[in-house]
Amino acid sequence: MKPVLPFPEHRIKLMKKYYTVISVLIAGLFLTGMSSPIDDDEAALNEPATDSHQAKHKHSTDYAKPHAGIDLTFHQSKTVVAGESFELQLTLRTRSAADQLQVRLRSDEGLQLDSADAYQFDTRQGMTHSVVCEFSALQDGQYYVNVTASLQIDGKQQSRSFTIPVTVGDPATFKSSAEEANSKRGYRLDAEQGVISMPAVETTE
Amino acid sequence: MKFSFPLFLIFMAALSGLTACSSGGGSASCSLGTGASISVTGQITFDRVPLDSASGALDFANTSTEPAQGVTVQAVCNSAISSATTDANGHYSLSVPAGTNGVLVRAKAEMLKTGTPAWDVTVLDETQTGDVVFVMDGSPFNVVNSPLVRNLHAASGFDGLNYTTSRVAGPFAMLDTIRKAQNLVLSVNASSIFPPLKVKWSEVSTTGTFYTNNTISVLGSLADTDEYDEHVIAHEWGHYFQDAFSRDDSIGGQHSQGNVLDIRVAFSEGFGNAFSAMVMGDSVYKDSQSVLFRTGFTIDVESNSCPNEGWYNECSVQSVLFDFFDDDSETSDVFNLGFTEIYDVMVNDMPNSPALTSIFNFITPFKAKSSVVGTDVDTLLNAQLIDQITDDFGSGVTSLDADVAGTDVVPAFKTGDLTTGFNVCSTGGNGGYNGLGVNRFITFTSPATDRFTFNAVRTSGITQSDPDIYIYQNGIPLGGGESTVANSETFNVNLVTGVEYVLQVLEFTYSNPDYNPDAVGAINETCFTISRT
Question: What is the mean pLDDT of residues B182-194?
Fold first, then answer.
């Protein structure tokens, strides 16, 4: 058996420091995730509001762009793997009286929409409307469903677009969409100079 | 193990590949010459994709080439060895020593000027941790003895059907819109010092287009791209202007044209819409939506037809402000003032107002300007169902559109005897968080320099209510009580005699942005007795 060497005191102190720093970082990560401002356009999961000290006054102070008064929540029927079909229920709520609500859907390449891609509702019949859509994907990955919803009010149109993240398979096994997009586009990160390089169309004279 | 020559070659090749990958432009192998300075000149341009004037959708067929004005250009030989700023035609001039091999020209998505005036705007990749600036790089080249001309163009990446290559033009298009917004302010005050501004964007950004803390975030994902939406960018820059040069007490949040809004939000967003039209010289605000569906929408800020018109409506605010600015004459609109008076009020008057920012403390000092006829302002306001405004608090302004919910939403700033207490109601009927009446305001002058206790006690409405209280001096929050105690709230604060304060009272339930006033069983009004001891 190998002898266990005692740690010198300064190393123990250093380890404690690291432990503290790591703990703070992990806690910070969790807190950041929990208190992230509500995305304007990446649709939020429909979670009931709670009235507690922790839940209080975490509202967005973002000054958002104007858009149609439409809110969207969604619910995915189950955790899915490649090859399986699954349902996504979208619930749209209009904030003010309108004549008509139109909804159009489009999924990322690789994620197949197996149901209708356009819907229309008479909003005078109610302000909340649901759509159940079916999807399937042949490969695991992070996909997005793009939803554009438009309201007709007194003959004028206002729109709002949403992006719904859909995960197929284990997220730990695939690259982040940002990383993938950057590599696809030929972007090169130079962390040292703090720049991300994009290719120019260059001409010489 | 022996280290064979072929293995050595593979190792070196791999190493050089890694180096190239991390070079950010292939300039890692650059060697700096020692000869005389040789000029490298050229033009930096980008693709401007216009929006269709009727639908607001991206109109790729009419893409034009525009000069990238005022952006930083560098000669990069491992690091920047020469730097310049493009002129009004996008032209630049750099100096590189003769004998330099492997140098490249880099255009940064940055507008930087020191001195007076000054600005510092950068477009950052929102997917990266920390501040990573977008740059557009040319290819490495060698400098011998002759001057060189190298033009860089940022392409949209659209092939007629889809985005197929890098959307390099995006960051430069956004900078160009910001330059136009800066120019409107500089046209009134040529010595403006603009605080640093960051723009965060990426091709996959879904976090929304909004302004907060000297940063404008811009959507980039195909569901909704905003990099070419000049009115949208100018709208958000308008919020930056309010933050940096004026005062904006808005609580932000989602909003649309017909909403009955908190007065702070209505003014802030109405200003943003009108300001975008002023910057663009185009009254039709356009927001392209999905690239996939080629959709968009428009708002004509010159239109005087607003759903739910009034002092709580961003549409009414934008209509009034744009009429002050533009030179079109219509019924009720005799103004042709440009931006000067608007700038003057927002920069010099609104920041000192004891009231929270709204159309009230914009109009009151505006009417006092020598170039403004007060009765003409009243006429314009009346056309938007806004009564004559005589002070920063909108005293006497009581007209409401028939669709406005709540029994206690006027006056906007309530007064009463706090020593005996009086009734105030918070309403969620106009929508949660930033709907009119969620937050009720009370204005009062402190009778003494002392410590006071404010109390809110439920009188009607939601059975298990949760009132909260805040207090402001010139828009600056001095503190508040936001306990979770049911049906009451208490808050202690030190006040100064003779100073005007604003007390804000709300029912917490209604402050949820997802509050649904149309839900079955919703109780949309909760009232409290407010008192001070």
Answer: 98
What are residue B340's phi and psi, to 5 degrees?
-60, -55
**Which among A162, A187, A200 has the least Cβ separation from residue B153?**
A200
Q: Pick the residue of B63, B221, B489 with the most A CBs within 10 A to test the interface with A by mutation.
A: B221
Tell me whether residues A66 and B273 touch, CB distance under 8 A.
Answer: yes
* Partner-chain contact A201 B153, CB within 8 Å: yes
The reply to whether residue A189 touches residue B132, judged by beta carbons under 8 angstroms, is yes
Q: Average pLDDT of chain B?
A: 93
pLDDT in tens, A104-160: 999 988 999 999 999 999 887 778 899 999 999 999 988 999 999 999 877 788 899
Q: Mark yes or no for CB contact A191/B135 under 8 Å.
A: no
Please give the Cα distance from B131 to B353 (Å, whole number): 36
Is B133 within 8 Å of A204 when comparing Cβ atoms?
no
The three-state secondary structure class of B447 is coil
B481 touches chain A (CB under 8 A): no
Indicate the length of chain A as a whole number.
205
**How close is the nearest chain A Cα to the Cα of B468, in Å?**
10
End-to-end CA distance of chain B: 88
Q: ω into residue B117 within 30 of 0, thus cis? A: yes
Contact across the interface for A40 and B139, Cβ inside 8 Å: no
Task: Report the distance separating Cα B508 and Cα B433, nearest Å.
Answer: 9
**DSSP string covering B246-294, please?**
S------B---TT--B-HHHHHHHHHHHHHHHHHHT-SEEEEE--TTTT
Positive or negative torsion for Cα B246, B251, B253, B259:
negative
Whether residues A63 and B236 touch (CB distance < 8 A) is answered with yes
CA dihedral defined by B285, B289, B293, B299, rounded to 10 degrees? Answer: -30
Whole-Å CA distances, B306 to A112, A150, B122, B241, B252: 41, 18, 36, 25, 21
Q: Range with the lowest mean pLDDT among A31-35, B134-138, B296-300, B398-402?
A: A31-35
User: How many residues belong to chain B?
Assistant: 533
User: Which pLDDT score is estimated for B28?
Assistant: 59
On whether the CB atoms of residues B68 and B86 are closer than 8 A, the answer is: yes
Binned at pLDDT 50, 70 and 90, residue B9 comes out as very low
Check CB contact of B223 with chain A, cutoff 8 Å. Answer: yes
Report chain A residues whose CB lies below 8 A from the CB of B202. 178, 181
% of chain B surpassing 70 pLDDT: 95
Confirm or reject contact between B155 and chain A (CB < 8 A). yes
Q: Would you give the distance in Å from CA B498 to the centre of its chain?
A: 35
* pLDDT exceeds cutoff 50 at A38: no
